[in-house]
Amino acid sequence: DTEVTQTPKHLVMGMTNKKSLKCEQHMGHRAMYWYKQKAKKPPELMFVYSYEKLSINESVPSRFSPECPNSSLLNLHLHALQPEDSALYLCASSQDRPAFLVFGPGTRLTVL
Amino acid sequence: AQSVTQLDSHVSVSEGTPVLLRCNYSSSYSPSLFWYVQHPNKGLQLLLKYTSAATLVKGINGFEAEFKKSETSFHLTKPSAHMSDAAEYFCVVSDPIASKIIFGSGTRLSIRP
After folding, report:
1. What is the DSSP string of A17-63?
2. I need a labelling partner for A83 at 20 to 30 A (CA). Which of A10, B54, B66, B107 fits?
């Protein structure tokens, strides 16, 4: 298994909703990442987990809450989002840090 | 600190002609460099990587890149463009000191029939 999977592929939510994005990899990678990507821009780093511990939080608003239940899974819990949070959310993993990243297909999030 | 600059925001070539996407980096030590491709509404796929082995790196789909330390460049090339190459391309550098991955701003490649 050499891929990162993400669910759901698309998500539409209201500003009062609570939802979660999920990411999974079975490559034995020990670092996992959340990126946010707006149209025509490079991905922006949000969070990094290294050996299941949060190692980087790029000053992300608290309405985004990451969770790493185990070495294969990464979640991003969403609550009280704003329309400007609409974007493609990408999960990635790597053998260690820093190293080349394996990206998932992303979740296209729309906040109404 | 390391940085990466993609010199062209948009490149347009005709199908069957060569492709050149330019990338320059700034680093005070030997970097690891990567090229990723992103098709519309998709994730990023690794095209190729340089990690201090051979300076000419071959990747998937006929792409290759040459690491030139004297020019601090890592340009991506392909001899003959195909319509399916139309996508966004990102040059990326790995900064082991800051333990960060740094993305270039991206180059959109368009292919004319």
Report:
1. -EEEEEEEE-S--SEEEEEEE-TTS--EEEEEEETTEEEEE-S--TT
2. B107
First to last CA, chain A: 36
Q: How many CB atoms lie within 10 A of CB A28?
A: 10
Q: Is B43 at the interface with chain A, CB within 8 A?
A: yes
User: Which among A84, A105, A81 is positioned nearest to A25, based on CA atoms?
Assistant: A105
Contacts of B88 in chain A (CB under 8 A): 40
Contact yes or no for A99 and B32 at CB 8 A: yes
CB B72 within 8 A of CB B2: no
Instruction: Please say whether the beta carbons of A98 and A108 come within 8 A.
Output: no
Question: What pLDDT score was predicted for residue A97?
Answer: 66
Q: Is B104 on the interface with A (CB under 8 A)?
A: yes
Helix (H, G, I), strand (E, B), or coil: what is residue A84? helix
- Residues from chain A contacting residue B95 (CB–CB below 8 Å): 98
- Cis omega (within 30 of 0) for bond into A98: yes
Partner-chain contact B106 A43, CB within 8 Å: no
pLDDT at position B57, please?
94
Q: 3-class SS at B42? A: coil
Nearest to B43 among A40, A45, A103 (CB): A103
The pLDDT tens digits for B76-101 are 999 999 999 999 999 999 877 777 88
Taking CA–CA distances from A42, the nearest residue in chain B reads B105
